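Students often ask why we bother predicting the structure of a whole assembly rather than each chain alone. The short answer is interfaces. A chain on its own may look different once its partners are present, and contacts between molecules only exist in the joint model. In this exercise we take two input lines together and write out one structure for the complete complex. Read the inputs first and try to guess which parts will touch.
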Amino acid sequence: MNGPESLHEVTLVVNGVRRSGSVPGRRTLSDFLRHDLRLTGTHVGCEHGVCGACTVLLEGEPVRSCLLLAVTVDGAEVTTVEGCCRGDGSLGAVQQAFRECHGLQCGFCTPGFVTTITAYLRDHPDPDEPEAREAVAGNLCRCTGYQNIVASVLRAAQLRRQEGA
Amino acid sequence: MKPAPFTYHRPESLLDALAVLAEVGERGKVLAGGQSLLPMLAMRLAAPEHLVDVNRVPGLDGVTVEPEGVRVGALARHARVERDAPAAEALPLLRQALRHVAHPTIRNRGTTVGSVVHADPSGEMTAVLALCDGEVVLARQDGERKVAAREFFLGPLESAVAAGELATSVLFRRPGGRTGSAWHEVSRRHGDYAVCGVGALVTLDDDRRVVGARTAYVSMGDTPAVLDLVDAVGGRPADDADWAAAGRLAAGRLTPDADIHASAAYRSHLAQVLTARALREAAGRSARVPEAA
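Now the answer. The structure tokens for the assembled complex follow.
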């Protein structure tokens, strides 16, 4: 390919806010969020879909943002970890559970876990322990050994139920 | 770890998509779910000059039960196919195997047809299509052709799709008679690539004797191997068939490769055990099929 890359206008609704940028076709959604929109909560680990750190919600469903081109999802609604808090900016149920249960150490993988678990608990509000473990099977964490992350899933489910009651 | 530059196309109709594909020919690559393509682009194992994004082409996302089987359109995501109750009823093997395709997050975006076209011999959908004697519909600007599964998979990551063609749908053919199915695999972590995976179809006659026993495999060779194992178990009552013998017969016919995850001998051992397990479970299910369809 010769000459400068042509740019494409991309508009997304990210965490309820309309955001636009002008990007080359090869810009991944993860890089669009981080570099163009400066939303650096979404972390980029392996960049080939293995680690799950970059997981965001696309129209409410968890997807790997490193495996999507920004231009492909032009017009879509995206929720990142920044959108998993409460309306007043305080910690959401999943985030609070991670803090209470020591579900993170270095925190690099945490955004991907928070988004994945947020969507999972919406669809499965009352998981048992094996189900909680299976729910996070697609995300890698090199610090915790996962025990406290599984505990966080169960605690977040409990917090959500208490709020619902 | 960033894709090389390419010219991006986003056709909004099938005609436009086929016109672009005809124009770019060998220099183009189709983007649907992208869950296999994006890693290849990121690692620069693939660097097409043109990327043809078909995600906006209408009419390609259907999952329909036809008299012959289940037809899945090019834009139907794995998660959508997995959730489809009529499809699961018509061909239970589809859902049984889809639960082993990567992780749910990947299944939300990846497409079943894309998985078939990618022709990764560790992709469950390749083996399911082969086991069902399925076919792939390939459209091009001046017409379309149907390619049977046994002629579709040419080698690892190599399918019969020619330059300028778009796989618009695949047909997973419904097995006839009193047939049950099962899928078993072993992977290092649930959702990872299988070290060995087996799909099984067992057909019983009205006296519940085995008249058909077929299996297909992932990660056991360059293309999805399909085996007919009826010689080991044919004519036996479903609850008294020597499934272990069928497992040994299968292992003797497969020639897996070694890689960093498993030796060839270990893969053969897994194939033997998993074949017996999958056949036994499929036979149990076929015995519960109320009457021949």
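Check your guess against this: The mean pLDDT of chain A is 96.
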